[in-house]
Amino acid sequence: MPLCKTCNSLDLEQEDCMDSGINLGPFNDLLTKAENGCDACRFFCNVLQTSSRWTTRLDKLTERVIFLDSSRLDARKPTKLDDCTYCADDLCLDQCVSEDYEGPMDEEVDRVRRIPVDPRDEQCFSLIQAWTAECVTHSTCSKPLPVKLPEKTIEIPADPAVAPRLCSSDGRSGSYVILSYCSGDFESFIQRESGHTDFSAPLDVHSLPKTLADAIEIARQLGYQYLWTRTLCTSREEWGSDPARIAAIYGQAALMLSAEVAEDAGSGIFHDRRVFYSPAIGRNKDKYLRQRLLRWTSDIEESPLARRGWEIVERMLAPRILHVTSRQLIWECASGFQFEASGIVDKRTGSGQIRQRYVKGVVQPYLVKPFQGQVKEAGDVDDEVDISERVARLEAWHRCVDAFSKGSVSVPSDKLLAMAPLASVINDGTLGKYIAGIWSSDIAFGLDWSRPYALLRPAPEYRAPSWSWASVDGTVSSLALAWPQDLMQEHAKDPSWLKKYQPRLVSHHITLADPQRPYGHVLDSSHILVEGSCIGLTSLTRKLPDEGAFGLMSADTQKADLDKFGSEIEHYICMIIQGDAWRVEEGWNPHRGFCHLLILKPVDEAEVLRRVGFLRISVRSSTDPHTAFDALPWERRKLKLV
């Protein structure tokens, strides 16, 4: 393959150790050299022109000079050639060796993997079957066995000449595939997609929405006889009437197809893919470059499905998923991810926040246990339960909450309803009672949520109590996931902490819109009574020691309401949720710590308040911070939170 003079002399080993990277030349020059036959320049241009950073402003790209810097393409202004940009995006590149390379390989080096342009290629289906067979051997994954079919399914004959049909399971067993795609929230499949109400009538595949027709083809190619999709639920009420049954439908599915590219039912699942590889370059012409994102999950996290709350819940419920993305097929199960275009998985990007991210391998074991044995009935918490086991289950729940909050539902009041199947199976009885999105076993864990550095949006109409994450729009962060992992265990052993600072749930009163749906909508008479250590917000900020104390406040309001928030601040009360600023134990640094507090606003009745914000105090003091903290005028109060 022909190379221009610059690309022919590229030394990738030199690039790794250069401060400013290798100057490849002005972008327009790369375009010209690509047109004249340089395959490496063509690769660089393809990556740049399709990148999220430049694809919508190609006119600006023509004014830039391109550098290969730290295995990333960097487009710099001619007047600022020393200005480097470092970030994890689709301009980052990996070095690969050839397909037939047999020598020693670093774990961060992969072989070239050429994938078919058309995902319907036989090679793709063979790979899916291999992934499925491997998943069955995972100790962390449930086994796809014949189970009782959902009440309504699409029956798919093995012969493609025979039309599929809607069918009623009538108690039959079998293996089935689920389709997750961007549909309207609970469109009636029978009326809006098939046009049929007769379960014996065949479906005209050519008249079906393309996404559904493609899913039928995939299921048939993989040897599955039945397909189910959420739109076979006729309404939200059916989803909420028996959430454990819905969880079982997903949890017992053999496979879920996730149509990441399709923005609606008519977009289809199958789309041509483009994976760019450079020709052989480098000192010995034995290295190939490709985009690093092929070993990331960004094509999943940034897809249309990732912005939709119902579909996020589907992903969390399903034990194994085939993600059909714009670039490649990606397999997800409790053992991790596998990529069609990459044989290695990125273990560095985001690894520092691993406890704060949804990970199927952490959450899935708690979702499949109800289908594998008897589950304790939810109720009061057994004091003898190992606290570490309970905390791990709470962490799994709040990972799900945080992931769900990144999406939206077309009917905002459906937030609790959408999460109902997860809530119904994740509690084995040790989490206590479900109270509008949080659990009674560890009230501090559930109340400690916020959106640091940004504003949340309270619902214009009531849909949940102010202390519940479901009461606001926007991404929330369950801050308990960032607590030191032994913090709750240490507090459990420390009587002084329990007596002075531990918030205690005295009672709770949740008024359900439908008493038969404990995980569904709640009414505005719902409240909790919490005993906690309180102090006025203005008093707290005045009395905090000037040295080393840093307060970070997050308001549960929109920017337009911030002035009102500030004008009423003298009436606000803070209640401690969690912290370690006063922690005293061997090996613990007494000069560092944090404290999380709710900001509460009184309402008309005495001792009745609602949450309006969150405050984090970080202590970085050269003196003993817990002494000053203990000296603050804390008052134990029982407050009714609405």
UniProtKB/TrEMBL annotation:
<dbReference type="InterPro" id="IPR010730">
    <property type="entry name" value="HET"/>
</dbReference>
<dbReference type="Pfam" id="PF06985">
    <property type="entry name" value="HET"/>
</dbReference>
<protein>
    <recommendedName>
        <fullName>Heterokaryon incompatibility domain-containing protein</fullName>
    </recommendedName>
</protein>
<feature type="domain" description="Heterokaryon incompatibility">
    <location>
        <begin position="176"/>
        <end position="314"/>
    </location>
</feature>
